[in-house]
Amino acid sequence: MGSRSCDELFHALLALDHSRQAPWGPLHGVSVSCFLLQHPSRLPADGGAMARTLLSAYLEGGLEQANQLVAQARRGNSHVVKGGPSRVDRKVTPPPREAPVRSPFAVTIEDVAVDGTFPASRFTERVRAWAAATVDAGRRDT
């Protein structure tokens, strides 16, 4: 693979995700969660709590359980349902973290990308390994 940055790989993956075609589209939430947790400066206001919960649900109960969690979060965050603004506090900023010299993750987006194209063959298995490595590294940090 060339020297594509994590950002470039992430944007390539998002383009595939947004096609809504298998195997990429159904794993969008899992892929985004992995990327955000491996790049903590990009974490949302919740500090990655939802991403960690989603990955745990995915690893424990598969894509169906992860999708149920996403659906619950969407309903709970709906302006229509609540009749008001989102419950996410956008003023909270996660503390800055220095980028590690060497990745503490056994599997990264580069591994999932293979040759930079995120081939469909074995994509699901690579994302599952990415999720497991992300969760495992998080456990070591606590």
Q: Assign an overall shape.
A: globular
Mean pLDDT: 84
Q: Give the % helix.
A: 55-70%
Question: What series of H and E elements makes up the topology?
Answer: HHHHHH
In what range is the share of β-strand residues? under 5%
Gyration radius from CA atoms, angstroms:
15 Å
The stretches of 5 or more residues where confidence is low (pLDDT under 50) are 81-101
Report the end-to-end length measured between terminal Cα atoms: 33 Å
* Annotation, overall tally of beta strands: 0
Structural class assignment: mainly alpha
What's the main sheet like? Answer: none
- What's the number of helices? 6
Protein architecture, described:
This protein is mainly α. It has helices at 6-17, 28-38, 49-76, 79-82, 109-113, 123-141.
Briefly summarize what is shown:
The chain has 142 residues and is an all-alpha fold.
Topology:
Layout (H helix, E strand, L loop, with lengths): L5 H12 L10 H11 L10 H28 L2 H4 L26 H5 L9 H19 L1
Helix pairs in contact: 1-2, 2-3, 2-6, 3-6
Features:
single chain; 142 residues; mainly alpha; 6 helices; 56% helix
